[in-house]
From TrEMBL:
This is FAD-dependent urate hydroxylase HpyO/Asp monooxygenase CreE-like FAD/NAD(P)-binding domain-containing protein. It comes from Streptomyces echinatus. InterPro entries: FAD/NAD-bd_sf, HpyO/CreE_NAD-binding, L-asp_N-monooxygenase_NS-form. Residues 6-165 form the FAD-dependent urate hydroxylase HpyO/Asp monooxygenase CreE-like FAD/NAD(P)-binding domain. Coiled coil: none annotated. Pfam families: NAD_binding_9.
Length: 586
């Protein structure tokens, strides 16, 4: 009898798993035949986020040369490497192009078709354009996957969840604001994938409060300006008259850092150095567990500092006062942040060459402006300075820190639950918008279409309106009849709108204190509340405690998502192969 594998989610993660199944099947699968069922209401390849049916104005936030769906020899995995083209090679683009998401969707569809074609002839793929509602079945037996609009479930020998970004129910604060909006005829747009939000409710010329200054805000900015007929002439924005006025703030009060705009040259820092497999193994083995802030964050700081100073000393030695070998020895021996700061003060004369993660993370902490207009000028200066620095090869230690962030993320994946702080910090420093988007932000600010609110943005609802203010400009506030929460929903089990994850939780799947699904970091099997893995249920993605920077990544950077895909594919194929042998023995 043919075996059945159900993969819920056919976007980049599901496609990556399919590619790894094709790569590993010749070695690991000799069963009677396998049906792979891809369950996703959106087309395979791009899935929801990268579907081709979205605005052509929306870009990726990575250069085309930095996007690949294929493994290489830097990926630590048991399966075979199957190399393939990056996005820029496949699309014949200049490598430093920021491609549109529609084009990325076509690339992902091609990767899906190639993976499907490389499966053995005994393996057949079926796409079900429906939502998966729940999974049932005994722990040791075949599973049932119930689909929307289908009276009978799919029977599965194994299920892999690769559902990507999820919708979520509102948290208490958001629910209160939404209820107030309904009562007073206001507009409240909750966290969402921006391309799916109903922006028609935001009226021309009216102030709109926007909470969130990351990539979701950039999409919102684009759709409400160019998407409404505005255009750019050089550094000037020419409004169409259909735009609202966006008042944007966040916890930091500044946009994510620009993507770096130059190439790496010379030798790379030898990473990992202070947070590698040995440190991860030691942290994982601690009987009482570990505390992220106390035990992990100091290792992250030291690792990123090592990457930064290695590049400074080896590529720009004229800006240092000692030999790298001497600095490295003293840096490795330094046992606390004070010791490192003293060493750096001796060895690096210019403060602009020193790595200060706290200042990078919260540039407006303690900063106050007398007027709202003073803040506008200051924030434009902040963005200009960031753009200048991130496009200056003389500041190449910044790119070394980026490589350090990738290395750290690859190690943290193995630790499991590390809390939300790290992912937000990583995204702010390493996953920001293209430089041209920040230049557009400056043009919009000068045109008066975009206004900055400041750090620690506070939103209240009273007197029939929303109000926003910030400690950055004491006494200033702005009123609006519209509020947009410009960020993706938090991927937690308890608030997932998707019944699939809620039902999993009710069925005994474990969650972290931050609400993420617990999985075995080795192969992605879902864990129950006793810490036991479900033999026939796997999960990968941002809603798990083994989340990665993304389902695709830069070439030759070790791609932790690729490593996970390979481990899960091999575990699935090995399980199916062993099940077939057991059936024959009966």
């Amino acid at each position: 009898m043919r075996q059945q594998l159900v993969i819920v989610g056919a976007g980049p993660r599901g496609t990556g798993i399919l590619e790894r199944l094709a790569a590993n099947a010749p070695e690991l699968y000799a069963g009677p035949g396998l049906d792979i069922h891809l369950v996703d209401p959106h087309p395979p390849g791009g899935g929801r986020v990268w579907r081709q049916a979205q605005s052509p104005l929306l870009w990726m936030n990575s250069h085309a040369e930095d996007v690949t769906m294929f493994t290489d020899d830097t990926v630590t995995m048991a399966g075979p490497v199957r190399e393939g083209p990056t996005l820029h090679e496949w699309a014949a683009l200049h490598g430093r192009t920021f491609a549109g998401r529609q084009l990325q969707g076509r690339y992902l569809r091609w990767v899906y078709e190639r993976a499907r074609a490389e499966l053995p002839p005994t393996v057949t793929v079926h796409h079900h354009p429906r939502r998966a509602l729940r999974i049932g079945g005994p722990r040791e037996g075949r599973q049932q996957v119930w689909l929307e609009g289908r009276p009978r479930p799919l029977l599965a020998d194994l299920v892999i969840l690769a559902v990507g970004h999820l919708d979520a129910e509102l948290d208490a604060g958001q629910a209160e604001l939404a209820a107030y909006a309904r009562e007073h005829g206001l507009v409240h747009l909750p966290p969402d994938f921006t391309a799916d939000s109903d922006l028609s409710r935001l009226k021309a010329g009216e102030p709109v409060l926007v909470r969130g200054f990351g990539l979701a805000f950039v999409d919102l900015m684009v759709l409400l300006t160019e998407g409404r007929g505005g255009r750019y002439e050089g550094d000037e924005y020419l409004p169409s008259g259909r735009e609202p006025v966006l008042y944007v703030g966040s916890r930091r009060g500044v946009p994510y850092h620009s993507k770096i705009g130059y190439d790496w040259t010379g030798g790379r820092p030898p990473l990992p150095r202070f947070l590698g497999p040995a440190e991860v193994d030691e942290l994982s083995a601690r009987p009482g567990g570990f505390d992220f802030r106390r035990d992990v964050w100091p290792l992250i700081e030291k690792e990123l500092g090592f990457a930064h100073y290695h590049r400074l000393f080896t590529a720009h030695p004229g800006r240092t006062t000692m030999a790298w070998a001497d600095f490295e020895e003293r840096y490795a021996a330094a046992g606390d942040p004070e010791g490192i700061r003293a060493l750096v003060a001796d060895a690096v004369p210019d403060p602009a060459d020193r790595l200060d993660l706290a200042a990078l993370d919260r540039p407006l902490d303690g900063v106050r402006y007398g007027t709202h207009d003073e803040l506008q000028e200051a924030l434009r200066g902040h963005i200009e300075a960031d753009l200048t620095r991130r496009h200056d090869p003389a500041r190449s230690p910044d790119l070394a820190v980026f490589l350090g962030l990738l290395s750290v993320y690859g190690q943290l994946v193995r630790l499991g639950s590390i809390g939300p702080r790290w992912h937000g910090f990583f995204s702010y420093l390493a996953s920001g918008p293209p430089g041209p988007r920040l230049r557009q932000m400056l043009a919009l600010s000068r045109a008066g279409v975009l206004r900055f609110v400041g750090a620690g943005m506070e939103v209240t609802a009273a007197d029939g309106v929303f109000r926003a203010g910030s400690p950055t400009v004491p006494g200033f506030s702005v009123e609006s009849r519209a509020l947009v929460e410009a960020r993706l929903p938090e991927p937690t089990l308890g608030r997932a709108r998707d019944s699939l994850l809620r039902e999993l939780h009710l069925d005994g799947a474990a969650e972290t204190p931050d609400g993420l699904l617990r999985v075995d970091p080795g192969d992605g099997r879902i864990l129950d509340r006793a810490g036991r893995p479900y033999p026939r249920r796997f999960a990968l993605g941002p809603y798990t405690d083994a989340r990665t920077p993304g389902a695709f990544t830069r070439p030759r950077t070790g791609g932790p998502a690729f490593r996970q895909n390979d481990a899960t594919a091999r575990a699935a194929l090995s399980f199916l192969g062993a099940s077939h042998v057991k059936e024959l023995a009966r």
